[in-house]
């Protein structure tokens, strides 16, 4: 069976994890955590970064930082993972979904402004497949209406919008290092990107269970105490050690995935030209990270048949999100503003093909041939 995904592995992770195990600081904010955070701050040019146990936790911290209160509204796409919504629902917010663009599967920036009310507090663009949302328009809307922008860039590390790394354009951003992402910590690690310096100090406090413990260790206070709300948002240094083994090879991993993505794209182009499938659109202002190669078929029925065709040939391809507004919880905690012209329709057409770092080109060519054989 050709798997859908294999977690990335460079060969250096073992020695770093062992070093972390033998260190005197293993529970969080140890040497490898600090090394990773410094790497991100230098590479991304953002104000501050903080590792978290998961991208979900990074989004939850963002909801705390912008002080989401019961009754607030947060605008986002329905085509996303449940954590994007849950982080704000946990604080009492109502989620307002708007439709997506069929070309990128991202939130349609042209529909956001009509969904704003006097209760709207934030916009959460989700950069699907590591391809950027139209951030200039979104930031302009947010500025004019005095709203916060939190980028869900879970899939977006090493991608850019007009030369700017995803996650660094809004007030706050979040990355994921889950095993299905381009870079992993070996567990569900994440990163909070702080682009507005007003959040930096409070983010440290929230992350340290609401205490000023970080300031205490820097000698800024003579003792630490409970000063704000918070939770335990520190990952183990073991996770950071595993991640560090991948950050050292970040460019190599990115190039390798882009090469595999190009093999798929070129090999499937004739099917796209014949109108049998659609391939991803990458807007000219966006540089993507080859997080996934997806294709779209005619409809849900054809998707089911193609997935079964590939499974019979021992290839594990998958579909992706079921739109949140169609779920039981979505009807309780959210509403869809405007018409669902594309969210459901496009989600039912989409298939993700196997993709991982180090995937042999002959494997990609075999998958391509088996996709073609469905129509042959």
Molecular structure report:
The radius of gyration is 21 Å and the shape is globular. The strands form 3 sheets. Strands 1-9-8-5-4-2-3-12 form an 8-stranded mixed beta sheet, sandwiched between helices. It has a 3-stranded antiparallel beta sheet with strand order 7-6-10, with no helix packed on it. A two-stranded antiparallel sheet has the order 11-13. The chain is built from 13 helices and 13 strands. Helices cover 37% and strands 13% of the residues. The chain folds into 2 domains: 13-247, Aspartate Aminotransferase, domain 2 (3-Layer(aba) Sandwich), CATH 3.40.640; 250-375, Aspartate Aminotransferase, domain 1 (Alpha-Beta Complex), CATH 3.90.1150.10. The chain has 376 residues and is of the alpha/beta class.
Helix content: 25-40%
Number of strands: 13
Note the gap between the termini.
22 Å
Instruction: Give the name of the CATH architecture of the largest domain.
Output: 3-Layer(aba) Sandwich
Largest sheet: 8 strands, mixed
CATH superfamily of the largest domain: Type I PLP-dependent aspartate aminotransferase-like (Major domain)
Helix-and-strand structural type: alpha/beta
As laid out across the biggest beta sheet, the strand order is 1-9-8-5-4-2-3-12
The whole-number mean of residue pLDDT values reads: 97
Shape: globular
Strand content: 5-15%
Low-pLDDT windows of residues: none
Order of helical and strand elements? HHEHEHEEHEEEEEHHHHEEHHEHEH
CATH topology description of the largest domain: Aspartate Aminotransferase, domain 2
Cα gyration radius (Å): 21 Å
